[in-house]
Amino acid sequence: MYLNKVTLYGNLTRDPELRALPSGQQVASFGVATNRSFKNKDGARTEQTEFHNIVAFGRQAEVIGQYLRKGRPIFIEGRLQTRSWEAEGKKNYRTEIVIENFQFGASAPGEGREGGAPRNTPVASSGHDEMDSHAGSAGGSEIQYPDEEINPEDIPF
Which of 17, 95, 150, 152 has its CA 20 to 30 A from that of 110? Predict the structure, then answer.
């Protein structure tokens, strides 16, 4: 069995560009920057930034186009895909990450909901399931437990 799986958490480098295919399906394309810090040979702290081309289709593209803007964080799960085309007699290639699932990243304190994802916004995955994305769930949000006692016999599994 082979595996083509990508997991990223980074910031958008530009506003999503929303287009429609001839079939009417929406397509969003945008860039995401990720970085890593490490010590080089001399022991100095160095930061390296990578830029990734991202593509989303269907409902995911619509949600991304509506709620995300340059600089906003996003968590992405997807797969690598390389496209090729010929222009002016030259063969061109572009490697992209096709989104299979995503979540909005945490909002900065005091940023509010303007221009960002509202809380409890459903995010469609490629399996047509929906899951709630909670802005701020990546940080120190607390688990809300019910007030009453849970009876193990009430659990359906």
Answer: 17
pTM for the full predicted model: 0.66
Residues 81/7/116/146 CA torsion (nearest 10 deg): 140
Q: Which amino acid is at 97?
A: I
* CATH superfamily, domain at 6-136: Nucleic acid-binding proteins (2.40.50.140)
Which tokens in the block code for residue 49? 């930034």
Contact between 52 and 77 (Cβ < 8 Å): no
Residue ranges per domain, the chain?
6-136
Whether 125 contacts 100, CB under 8 Å: yes
pLDDT less than 70: residues of the chain = 108-157
Residue found under tokens 């909005």: 104
Structural contact between residues 118 and 132, judged by C-beta atoms closer than 8 angstroms:
no
